[in-house]
Design brief:
435 residues; alpha+beta; 3-hydroxy-3-methylglutaryl-coenzyme A Reductase, Chain A, domain 2; Alpha-Beta Plaits; 4 domains; four-stranded antiparallel sheet; 10 strands
């Protein structure tokens, strides 16, 4: 069957679904029923969802859970977490409860600078270009005034513009790097608009400069960067070693030592560091999704930051100082609490209200704490009982659902596996023997 189609985007939603179902599925009726089963019964709300992206056919639901008992800078929070992975919410909750009895979490925003670049090719002298840029810099900034005045009123705007020589990496390649602060907005559209304005003005100025006659300046692209090494937040926990308490029969001192060793391993071994940092991002991404922020941008920026030394390393640190256990994480987080889906998606606005409608800096702190909590919970399991014991217990219901277990079977299995190892085969054997 020919699976090509012209003008798909111009079809109605119903026509798109009918074509997809008839072209790609054995049972068109069943395929359509699955899509329709996830439509929202509120027609206005479904229309809003349909307009978030292009070619929408249905909704794709993920669980929204909460992790209570977080104390951050002496303020109590319950964190909304959107994720499909078992044990993440439980781990965050356990870490929150653990540290709530030991002073809670501390978090500090280090800075909120974001960057974007005008990437261009110029076949002239960099020294001449640099002198020209210095002379025309104020004109470039003035050209963006119409775009920046509202942001300036909110405490943001363009901080600075720099000319950067990258011709050592690529022949005749240069950049205009603009640094921004965007208040409570993530600021992608604002930054990109400013960069395009700068590019247009810069090209015009170069074109009319007599000394550059015959030398072309070719603008390749103007775009923000999701690498934000100057938009940083630090989260930390600390307590006296003895206050950690014994863990799974392990003394507090040995437990602290093993946590530090685990992080040291992630600092020198990239194979471990990737999984270590993925655990941090379990907490970060779940909260990013719940608050309508761009988790792909955050992921890309965070992992680039983890490799800033030239080797991919742990994002977290731990140490013992004056009989005190200290653990922290520093993350680059460009977040927004206005714009995007914050007012459009009902559960995003619900999540924001749950958090007390934080500004962007406060949300940065909360997200960093979620990452640190998840990291501590994962390491606590790894260095004591092992990761599978707790994870598979939480995964048990998913396995039971795979086998279509009824409520009675689930209840019996939950009791049985309190004292037995969980695995897919073990659950299958239990159901076969018992029922």
């Amino acid at each position: 069957m020919n699976k090509k189609i012209e003008g798909f985007s111009r079809l109605s939603k119903k026509e798109k679904i009918t074509w997809i179902a008839n072209t790609h599925f054995d049972s068109a009726e069943e395929a359509i029923a699955k899509l329709e089963s996830y439509w929202n019964p509120d027609i206005k709300l479904q229309k809003k969802h349909d307009e978030f992206i292009e070619n929408t056919l249905s909704n794709f639901y993920l669980p929204l859970g909460v992790a209570p008992n977080f104390i951050i800078n002496k303020v109590e929070y319950t964190l909304p977490i959107v994720i499909e992975e078992s044990s993440v919410v439980a781990a965050a909750s356990n870490a929150a409860k653990f540290w709530s009895k030991r002073g809670g979490f501390k978090a500090t925003v280090i800075d909120t600078v974001k960057s974007g670049h005008v990437h261009f090719i110029f076949e002239g002298s960099f020294i001449e270009l640099e002198l020209f840029f210095i002379k025309k810099k104020s004109e470039l900034l003035k050209a963006t005034k119409g775009l920046t005045q509202n942001m300036k009123a909110r405490g943001g705007g363009i901080i600075d513009i720099k000319l950067i020589d990258k011709s050592g990496s690529l022949k005749d390649y240069y950049q205009l790097q603009a640094n921004f602060k965007t208040a409570d907005a993530m600021g992608a559209n604002f930054i990109n608009s400013c960069l395009e304005c700068l590019a247009e003005k810069f090209k015009k100025l170069v074109h009319i400069e007599p000394s550059f006659h015959g030398k072309e300046l070719d603008i390749v692209m103007s775009i923000l960067s999701n690498y934000v090494p100057e938009c940083l937040v630090k989260a930390e926990v600390s307590c006296k070693i003895q206050d950690l308490g014994p863990q799974e029969g392990m003394s507090a001192a040995i437990f602290a030592k093993k946590i530090i060793q685990a992080i040291n391993i992630a600092n020198c071994e990239p194979y471990r560091a990737v999984t270590h940092n993925k655990g941090i991002m379990n907490g970060v991404d779940g909260l990013i999704l719940a608050t309508g922020n761009d988790f792909r941008a955050i992921e890309a920026g965070v992992h680039a930051y983890a490799a800033r030394s030239g080797q991919y390393r742990s994002l977290s640190n731990a140490k013992i100082e004056k009989n005190k256990f200290i653990m922290d994480v520093t993350l680059p987080l460009a977040l927004g609490t206005v714009g995007g889906l914050t007012k459009l998606h009902p559960l995003v606005s619900w999540s924001m209200e749950l958090l007390g409608n934080p500004d962007a800096k406060t949300l940065m702190k909360i997200v960093a704490v979620a990452g640190l909590a998840q990291n501590f919970a994962a390491l606590r399991s790894l260095v004591t009982s092992g990761i599978q014991k707790g994870h598979m217990k939480m995964h048990l219901l998913n396995i039971l659902n795979q086998f279509n277990a009824n409520d009675f079977q689930k209840k019996s299995a939950l009791t049985y596996f309190k004292t037995n190892t969980v695995s897919v085969n073990a659950v299958d054997d239990f159901l076969q023997k018992k029922y």
